[in-house]
Amino acid sequence: MRLILCILFLLPWSLCAQKEATKPTTEKQSATPAGKLKVVNYDEAKIPAYTLPELLTAKDGRKIAISKDWEKMRRPELLELFTSQVFGRIPATAFKKTVTVVKEDKTAMNGLATLKMVDITITAKGKSLTIHLGLFIPNSATKPVPAFLLICNRAADNIDFTRNKKSEFWPAEEVIARGYAIAAFDNADVDPDKDDGFKNGIHGLLDNGRTPESWGTLAAWAWGASRCMDYLVTDKRIDAHKIAVVGHSRGGKTSLWAGANDQRFAMIIANEAGCGGSSISRRRFGETIYEINRGFPHWFCTNFRIYNNNEDALPVDFHMLLALSAPRLLYIASAEDDLWGDPHGQYLALLNAVPAYNLFKDKSNLNEAMPARNTPVKSGNVAYHIRDGKHNLLLKDWNYFMDFADLHWKKQ
């Protein structure tokens, strides 16, 4: 017994020493359903051998060599696999949507912007919910402007349309100063971020029973982003062909799925999306499929649990999710201290998505080695950065995103 206590006491010190000596190597332990300890790997040397599913090989074995075949054959195949095995299928329940501009203030931000507050109400089966979309548009604009739409998973602390409280998470003033519009909605307006048996939110309106393929909460939030997009493309002061969807962490996973399904989004930005979003699951580094399904059983469809500790059986990996944005603009971002999200795995996912982009006119080329921190790489229609610091969405990240948008949207 004393030996066990001694080991448990010394283990954290051992791990700290290991991390200091070979940063970012460390380990984390978590309890399995059986009560045993499962080691979460943070050591590149302990990543198992794996083979990624072929991105450009169709189910019937045909090689995809041109963009036409990607669009007509491979893209629909991958979209169906992610639908049935990862995010889940949206029910076909009929619904009514009403859009109301409840407020318009042309003197927002001391006259620099116009604020619009838009209520998007969804009604089905005698019940309804309302997505509250806030939008700032620069008053200096003489023509329709590009816009950024944030899927906000931290609205209470970071989204204040009065601008009495400001946050780097949604730096509206800085985005307006760069000549872009900026919008946001609270993901909780669409569906609660908790395991509630899918009884509330949009699931409570649209679900007609549950199957292993039924949509999870991430898919619901992505659906909500598209309902916001429905409004944005109608606003005459917004350039409908230059709208970016942005998400951080669970919001980043959502932005990737929203962009995969809704090709109206011209830029997809995933900030530190990690497992189930922008990192390679077969690496089993940091958060794994088992860990994410254990911690957030409501995020994905039930079928995704088949791949708990069984990543090699998954018919896709997440470089394929990133490839579903091709040929549109795609930005993947990581943070150096966010080991749980596997920054290296995020870069590898983008690197392995590039062949899909290269089927199109705008060629992309990334180096095998990750870039240095705080040094964004941009090639063709893809970009990536890893910054210093922790898991968060900061002004530094937004500035990098806007630099990429400038490169493509302000040169035209």
The quaternary structure here is single chain
Poorly predicted spans:
1-27, 29-37
How many strands, which pairing sense, and closed or not: the largest β-sheet?
Answer: 10 strands, mixed
What is the fold named in CATH at topology level of the largest domain? Rossmann fold
Proper CATH architecture of the largest domain? 3-Layer(aba) Sandwich
Number of strands: 12
Radius of gyration: 21 Å
Structure description:
This protein is of the alpha/beta class. It folds into two domains: 45 residues, no CATH class; 334 residues, Alpha/Beta hydrolase fold, catalytic domain (Rossmann fold, 3-Layer(aba) Sandwich). The chain has 13 helices and twelve strands. The strands form two sheets. Strands 3-4-5-7-6-8-9-10-12-11 form a ten-stranded mixed sheet, sandwiched between helices. The protein has a two-stranded antiparallel sheet with strand order 1-2. A hairpin with a 2-residue loop joins strand 4 and strand 5. The N terminus is likely disordered.
Defining traits:
12 strands; Rossmann fold; disordered N terminus; alpha/beta; 10-stranded mixed sheet; single chain; globular
Summarize the helices and strands and which ones pair or pack.
Blueprint: H1 2-22, E1 27-31, E2 37-41, H2 67-87, E3 96-107, H3 108-111, E4 113-124, E5 127-138, E6 145-152, H4 155-158, H5 172-177, E7 181-186, H6 187-190, H7 201-206, H8 217-232, E8 238-248, H9 250-261, E9 267-271, H10 289-295, H11 318-323, E10 329-335, H12 343-357, E11 377-379, E12 382-387, H13 395-409
Parallel strand pairs: 6-7, 6-8, 8-9, 9-10, 10-12
Antiparallel strand pairs: 1-2, 3-4, 4-5, 5-7, 11-12
